[in-house]
Amino acid sequence: MSTLLATAIGIAAGLMGGPVEVLSMRIADGLFAFPAMLLSILVATIVGAGEVAAIASIFIITLPLMMRVFRGATRDVVHRDFVTASAVGGARGLRIAVRHVLPNIGGAVAVQATYAASIAMLIEGGLSFLGFGVVPPAASLGSLVQEGSAYLTVYPWLALVPGAVLAAAILSVNLVGDGLRDALDPRDERSMS
């Protein structure tokens, strides 16, 4: 959800500029002002502990960063000759966004989506560890770490194994994002070697 909304807002801000760009970036700045976990706890306090709190927290935390990245990528594409030629030829903003901008920022969208997935796992695990995320009888790696921490001196694997699985899952998603970036950016020297 946050990737779709951030893509739309970022492209609109990059194409239109002016008040749309300023307003969307000030909202992003406002959301950046809060530390991620503190904002998650605030959302969980307002909404109540559970899956809804985790989803809302993930959405609110990942949205501003992606908005900024997509706006910046759009600003780079908007000043290219093919976009100018399309605008001079009579293409409207929506057509330019869909036919020219979106395909050219697709790599950034894919990489940011994988990054958002790893942030989502981290936020959900942290919220569940603190008791604000997934509540029993549902299970989460964060809640498993929290339950296992009570037996850390006697049975350390009860907390270490779910923690290691969470770390491995986040690492694997980040590695997929790096692979996507290498595959989708032909100008990058790493993909040439």
Automatic annotation (TrEMBL):
Q: How does it sit in the membrane?
A: Multi-pass membrane protein
**Matches recorded under PROSITE patterns:** ABC_TM1
Q: Where are the transmembrane segments?
A: 34-61, 155-177
Q: Name one Pfam family in it.
A: BPD_transp_1
Q: Boundaries of each ABC transmembrane type-1 domain copy?
A: 1-177
Q: What is its main location?
A: membrane
Subcellular localization is given as: Cell membrane
Q: Which InterPro entries match?
A: BP-dependent_transpt_permease, MetI-like, MetI-like_sf
* Superkingdom field: Bacteria
Classification via CDD domains: TM_PBP2
Entry keyword set? Cell membrane, Membrane, Transmembrane, Transmembrane helix, Transport
The entry sums up its family as follows: Belongs to the binding-protein-dependent transport system permease family.
The protein here is known as ABC transporter permease
- Record organism: Microbacterium insulae
